[in-house]
Amino acid sequence: MLKKRIVLLLTLTLGFAGHDINTNAATSDIPVLPPAIHTPHTIPATGTMEVAFSPNGGAAETVINAITEAKTDIRVQAYLFSYAPIAQALADAQNRGIQVRIILDKNQKTSTHSSVNFFTAHHIPTKFDESFHTAHNKIIIIDDNTVITGSFNFIKTAEEKNAENVLIIRGNKKLADLYIKNWEWRWKNSVAVFPIDHT
Description:
Helices cover 38% and strands 22% of the residues. Helix 4 links the parallel strand 3 and strand 4 (126-129). The protein is an alpha+beta fold.
């Protein structure tokens, strides 16, 4: 009886150990953050902050207004993107000469509601970030100086039905630089939806 218990204990122990080894092997494929952003940063509080909430608290309008302020470029990272008014604001920005580039989570490949086809139809360079279980960002960087972040996915439900928040930080270049470093890392390692002109 004692021998059976010892064998059972060893079996369970080795089983759990094997499980840990397999888990570590699986996570070893996850990309490592670049040195510039692999540790937390404390940034001096400069510039202004604008905050909005949903449902129906002006969150989407706040994002659209910030997009219309763009003078040179807009970088987007989004987990979900299907809200037509924000997609249209990005297309309008590109039409007036703003460089717009978008990174989406790989789930947007198969989503029937995704704005991917809209972006490709408007020749907006778009990529899928396929390196992670989930690329869960909700970020827009404008003119290397404004950062939009928060829980707000760029979808109609976030505007009309969900409890969400959006925060816009303007005029904090050091903060924007960190977000840009992260964005550029992901842009370099994401997969283009259609051929992108690099000239």
